[in-house]
Design brief:
mainly alpha, 6 helices, 0% strand
Amino acid sequence: MSAKKNKKKSKEQENRPLTKKEIEYFKQKLIKTRKEVFEELSYFKDEFFGKSARDFSGETSTYRQHIADLSSDSLERETAFYLSDAETRLLSRIDKALERIENNTYGICLNCGKYIQKARLEAVPHARFCINCKNEMEKEKT
């Protein structure tokens, strides 16, 4: 078999529906990631959002803190908020991917309807778009 035919066959195999075994693999991967994200969000909640400014800074006296300390604490809280927001968005994408598994639409591009390549799903299990559509969307943003 020539290299050209091998390459074509390889490309066709990549652009195919997932088997039940592959879908179960990705489902377990998504569930594991979901659990990890929940743990991170719980950490943010406990460490940054469940505390007052005084608790957060570790200050126990009634004296005022230096403005630089307050600024540093504020920056840490803001960073934690940003990270927790990103984790919340990721959690939503994971939940939607799990819904697509239940609806038998997982691995199908929401834009063009073609199968998402397994390699892409391996890298981004919650992917909604095939790599071609995602690249086009990124080009449109710029």
